[in-house]
Each structure stands twice: as C-alpha cells, then as structure tokens.
Amino acid sequence: MSDTKIPYKIYLSENEMPTSWYNLRADMKNKPAPLLNPGTGKPLTAEELTPIFCDELVAQELDNDTKFIPIPEEIQNFYKMFRPSPLVRAYCLEEKLGTPAKIYYKFEGNNTSGSHKLNSAIAQAYYAKKQGLKGVTTETGAGQWGTALSMACAYFGLDCKVYMVKVSYEQKPFRREVMRTYGASVVPSPSDTTEVGRKILAEFPGTTGSLGCAISEAVEVATKNPGYRYVLGSVLNQVLLHQSVIGLETKAALDKYGIKPDMIIGCAGGGSNLGGLIAPFMGEKLRGEADYRIIAVEPASCPSFTRGTFAYDFCDTGKICPLAKMYTLGSSFIPSANHAGGLRFHGMSSTLSQLYHDGFMEARSVEQTAVFEAAEMFARTEGILPAPESSHAIRAAIDEALKCKESGEEKTIVFGLTGTGYFDLVAYQKYNDGEMSDYIPTDEDIAASVAKLPKVGE
Ligand SMILES: *Cc1c(COP(=O)(O)O)cnc(C)c1O
Predict the structure, then answer these.
(1) Is the minimum distance from the CB of 84 to ligand 1 under 6 angstroms?
(2) pTM beyond 0.85
(3) CA-to-CA distance for 167 and 210, rounded, in angstroms?
C-alpha cells in the first residue's frame, strides 16, 4: 500500500477496542520464574500473596496459562474515556531526519495522569473495589503511577495512600497536588510513618529515597491496616497483562493498513509499557508466526538489562517484599539523584527478563543528555512534549531511523510514546540551561550492590 494512504493518525473505533487482555506468559515455553517467599525460599502461594494483593490480582499474577483474560465491562467503559489511543505516523520527524524509515508511535499520554499507567491503575482499583476493600497503598517515583492510581481510586471511591520518592516529592510539587486533588494522601519517602522508613532514615540520613524504599513503606502500611492492599504500577505480571491493551490496539491499527513493523522499541523502567506494547508481537514471535526486532531502552544511569545480573532479588530496599527473578542492579542500588527522568527502578519485570535472557529481545542504554536532545527534536517536529522516560524510546527510534538513512533501508519502526512531560519541566529547564549532565555508575558501584543479592534459587 502506498504511503499516501496512511493517515497521520490511525484511530480505532470504540468497538474495535480489545475486550480481553492478552497474557503473553501463556505463549512462553520458559515461563518467568515464580515469586519466592524471602523466608522459606519457596514459590509463593496464593494464600501467602492475598494479605498483600487483591485476590483477583493474585490470580492474574500466578496465571501462566490463560491466553486471554476478559476485561470487565466497567474497566472497558473507563478505558473509553481515554482509549483507543492513536497510533501516529511520525511524518514530520521522518522528514526532519531525512530518513527512508517509516516511524510510528503509540501515544499513551492523552489522559490527565499523562501516561500509560492509568491502563493498569483502573484495573487494580476495580478489583480492590470488587473485593470490598477500603483502600490501597502504593509508591510512586516520578509521580505518574500515583497520579493514575489517584484518578482510578477517585472513580471507584477508594482511599489512596501514596508514598512518593522524596526527591520527586520535592522536585515535582505539581504532581503531588494533582494526586491530592483526586483525593489521595501523599507522604514523602522514606518517612517516619513506618517502621521500615524509620530504619532506612537511621541508616541513610538525608537520603533522597528510591522506589525500593517507598515500596517497603507502602507494603508495610497495607499489611498492617485491615481493608487495605498494596498495588504496584509496574514490574509485576498482572501489570504487563493490563498494559497489553497498548499492544493489542497497536497491532489492530497496523493490521488495518497491512503494516508489518520491522522493529518495536520501548523504554524500560520496570517493563510494563514495553511488556504491554510488545505482547501480541512477541506472541507471534514465540509461536514462530512472525519475526520482529524488539528493543528495550533504559537509562545509562540505571541499566538493569544491560549491566545487571539475572538473579533472584528483592523488589524493595527494606527487603520485606517477595523475591523476583529478574535482571537487577541489586535492591540496595540507589540511582544518582541527578538522573532527571523516571526509569529509576533497580530491577526489571520477570517476564521481560526471561525473554531477554532467552534471546527474544535486545536492550540498550542511552545517556540523559542524548535523550533530551531527542525529546527536543521530537517536540519541535511532532508537537508533543514527551516525558523523559518516553524520550529514551524516541532516542533509539531516531538512532535506528538514522541508520536507515545511511543504509537506504525502508524499515518500519514502531515505538511507544508512553506519556507527556508537562510535570518534568525542572529537567527540561536543566537541559535548556545547559546544566544537564550524564551520570553512569561505575562497575564498582554496581558490583557493590550486586554482591548483596540474596543467595536463593540458585
Ligand atoms: C512509569 C513510566 C514509564 C516506565 O515504566 P514501565 O513500567 O517500564 O513502563 C515510562 N514512561 C512513562 C511516561 C511512565 O510514566
């Protein structure tokens, strides 16, 4: 089909939206390793997980076999407020680059929370409500997850307690106020409101916090308060499952015009948007029906895939969470505070870690300044002010398009544009003032935290 027939934006209609989530694990021969009980070293059972997570979400977490899980109608209806999201042909960026490559991006920033995280937040809030709970607790780093969860909890009338990484709480006061507007209570982490927070503060006075610390605090509060459960915005299998709507819509939109991508690119923090975007494509790859290059892009300052170790590790600094087998920098790894964007988590989704380990996908890391250069070019050509996290994927997409320019190949590139950057203007200010620096941890930094990995499951 000739290019001129492909519109700038490929929209699906409401009745073309997915009615089931796709569970990629069902098509994996090597399943992701199970979560382990840190006390016994044995796989966690549903009974052990239900004090922490909502019952239905525990079932989804442990289900490696059901290929399609129906999306409850209430969630489908909520999705219709901001979905289907457009798949955009980046004609203007292509022209600016002078590349023969065809670039598409799936834009998930068209909702108030500004990112893809609402796709899972609404599902998790729905199951909490259905179970008759009073509320949920969580952590948030850059603030997108907390914002999305606050919106979802407000919709279902649930209480929402958010532990926000201190550096973000201070640097991103506007996010905090959006969450409070939607009715959430927001506490900077580490805090003195929890046992684990007090312990971390005593050990590391003046710490700017990390997602790992905030998770420990949120889990403690959920397990100590009746009627509360903990919810997590990334990393877990259930979150990747909910995010499969991104990939399913992308595939449906591409199929409408008979477009076959050569490569699919996404940024990777805990792996949820990437896992969701690639799900149906990776499924085809696993079943031997099609082949794609799938590329995870992470920050050079927090390089779990490219410099981490594939091992069981804690998801949190306080070491109270289950152990997950993943590419990890060690749960005691605290990324440099100078790193402006999100993507600060020390580990990576077990599902993606297994797929990467088995050679089904690639990973690369990119430096902060190069990421913001890509963000600036994207904003000036495509008009959208991208989130710094998303801009990691933009960087890689631009680099691949420039390779096509050299080789003359007309590759089709699809990348995930996970969100907008309106709340990241402190980082943009640093970039605009020429004050942004690149920080890359040394081998010694990484070795020191990897040396503290728990000795289990080997
Ligand atoms: C949270 C976030 C990410 C990274 O999280 P994943 O779970 O790896 O998808 C990327 N982009 C935006 C805009 C985010 O808010």
Answers:
(1) no
(2) yes
(3) 8
